[in-house]
């Protein structure tokens, strides 16, 4: 029999006498449990938000994007494109010409509306990626049909300019400043102009994409004054199951050899949104620290309850010393008492937190509260590392707060 553990259990679970110290121990246990449960839930919510953002970006951004390290554009030679297509794991390559432009639209019965948009010119391969199929809320994903150039606009632009995809007679006019011309409202040669028929509207719940207008790359190149092979980026879609890190390294090796004259970088979807993910992780860290302080306060209550218990059991300690108990045995009794209080609360909090997160994943009890949200309930994702770190944090705090009262008890009769 483990005598220190048996005595510690008797001190905690004894029902014959419920003193103030016993109730304080129970409150400490509840505090540790609630803090642990809250920490697990909050960390899982942040993990879920990060995963939700990845899913949103997956609807619009490519798996890999090749960009110039300096400047805005580069020449995508046929040799570079050929080697990229032969790279293992590559499925589609889309040439992109993208820049800010001015959009005008005259809605029926209204004056001309105008807004600054991100004009993204894409080639025919872009529609084969089928990324925007789930985000289309009106019309079709069509960029060119019967020698007519179409545009697919974000819902933000549709609302700002009162665009109606049903009205095929009213074009969306895109204007871009001409190089070397003085910008003036009365100078007709100051802007390149293209008229597009709006074929569809898409909606992605990300602010960065509220002003995007998709158009044929030939239209974008004509507006921007690009050469036929010039692009701002190459977007690469990988085959399902491809190792993204290995594919990224292979693509970097290709662009370094095939295009030595210009320095190109290969960025994954996460690389493009690194600042957003960093902000989420920093916020997660600060919230975790705040909740850790709550657990620390509950652990400090364990310190006070053990200190008061040592004073209350001073006579028992003296009797145990007289019966041959050592200082180490007395220390283990009160360390075990602190572990019982903290671990009971921590295990209860961990179990409740995990159960609540699993129920939220399965049934979505807590809704987002906004009808326009693409998900009905708060996204959560349990990570084993969060559970392990939370448990380790509670154990560490328990040892620190229980050590001094246990050491004090061991020195009473030493």
TrEMBL record:
Question: One matching Pfam family, short form?
Answer: MacB_PCD
Q: Where is the MacB-like periplasmic core domain?
A: 25-253
> What start and end residues bound the annotated signal peptide?
none
Record's GO cellular component terms: plasma membrane protein complex
Cellular localisation = Cell membrane
- Would the keyword Protein biosynthesis be found if you checked this record's keyword annotation? no
- An example Gene Ontology biological process: lipoprotein localization to outer membrane
Keyword set, alphabetical order = Cell membrane, Membrane, Transmembrane, Transmembrane helix
User: Where does the chain cross the membrane?
Assistant: 20-46, 285-311, 341-364, 384-404
- The residue ranges of the ABC3 transporter permease C-terminal domain are 291-411
Answer whether the UniProt record assigns the keyword Transmembrane helix to this protein. yes
* Similarity comment text for this entry: Belongs to the ABC-4 integral membrane protein family. LolC/E subfamily.
Please name the InterPro entries in this protein's record: ABC3_permease_C, Lipoprotein-release_system, MacB_PCD
What is the protein name stated in its UniProt record?
Answer: ABC transporter permease
- Species this chain originates from: Spirosoma sordidisoli
Q: Which taxonomic lineage is given here?
A: Bacteria, Pseudomonadati, Bacteroidota, Cytophagia, Cytophagales
Q: How does it sit in the membrane?
A: Multi-pass membrane protein
